């Protein structure tokens, strides 16, 4: 089932999400819904707070080539275990901040630990777009958006555009 994505600004996007204590069927269903919502948007990552659930759960699939096999990843309690000193700038966007893009600098590689759909601990090193995406989604679990890396002027400009968009959406 597709869920609706919360648009910035919204207090739910600013709150830290709670760790998942045990993997209920509800949470697994939510993960499936989030993947469906993400692919439909379309996007490459989605965090539970973006659909109004303040639990530490993210989904991602950064396979861009349409002919390539999809690789949906579901991560409960994801954590950056190590980050490279090398940093990279990437133009980021966010499903909660539609049609706005800006350069964000982050570590180029990260090692991430998480629990998979079956509750098994997993660990993997990510780089390229995967590294950008997984860090962006984990930020969501800490109430942080990519625009929080920008200067105040740019951030306010984007926030005002989103307020206007939300007013227009409410009217239609
Ligand atoms: Zn986002």
UniProtKB/TrEMBL annotation:
Cofactor: Fe(2+)
EC number(s) per entry: 3.5.1.88
Active site (record annotation): 137
Binding-site list for Fe cation: 94, 136, 140
Cofactor note: Binds 1 Fe(2+) ion.
Enzyme kind, highest EC tier: hydrolase
UniProt keyword list: Hydrolase, Iron, Metal-binding, Protein biosynthesis
GO MF, one annotated term: peptide deformylase activity
GO biological process terms, semicolon-separated: translation
Keyword hit for Iron: yes
Catalysed transformations (reactions): N-terminal N-formyl-L-methionyl-[peptide] + H2O = N-terminal L-methionyl-[peptide] + formate
Gene3D superfamilies assigned to the protein according to its UniProt record, in alphabetical order: Peptide deformylase
Role according to the record: Removes the formyl group from the N-terminal Met of newly synthesized proteins. Requires at least a dipeptide for an efficient rate of reaction. N-terminal L-methionine is a prerequisite for activity but the enzyme has broad specificity at other positions.
UniProt xrefs under PANTHER family: PEPTIDE DEFORMYLASE
Similarity remark: Belongs to the polypeptide deformylase family.
Protein name: Peptide deformylase
Source species of the chain: Roseivivax sediminis
Gene: def
């Amino acid at each position: 089932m597709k869920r609706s994505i919360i648009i910035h600004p919204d207090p739910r996007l600013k709150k830290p999400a709670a760790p998942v204590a045990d993997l209920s069927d509800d949470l697994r269903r939510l993960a499936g819904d989030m993947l469906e919502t993400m692919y439909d948007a379309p996007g490459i990552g989605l965090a539970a707070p973006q659909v109004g659930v303040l639990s530490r759960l993210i989904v991602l699939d950064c396979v861009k080539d349409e002919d390539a096999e999809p690789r949906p990843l579901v991560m409960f309690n994801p954590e950056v275990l190590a980050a490279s000193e090398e940093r990279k700038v990437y133009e980021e966007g966010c499903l909660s901040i539609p049609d706005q893009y800006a350069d964000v600098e982050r570590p180029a590689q990260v090692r991430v630990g998480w629990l998979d759909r079956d509750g098994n601990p997993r660990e993997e090193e990510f780089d390229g777009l995967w590294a950008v995406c997984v860090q962006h989604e984990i930020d969501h679990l800490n109430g942080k958006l990519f625009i929080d890396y920008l200067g105040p002027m740019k951030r306010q400009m984007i926030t005002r555009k989103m307020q206007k968009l939300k007013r227009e959406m409410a009217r239609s």
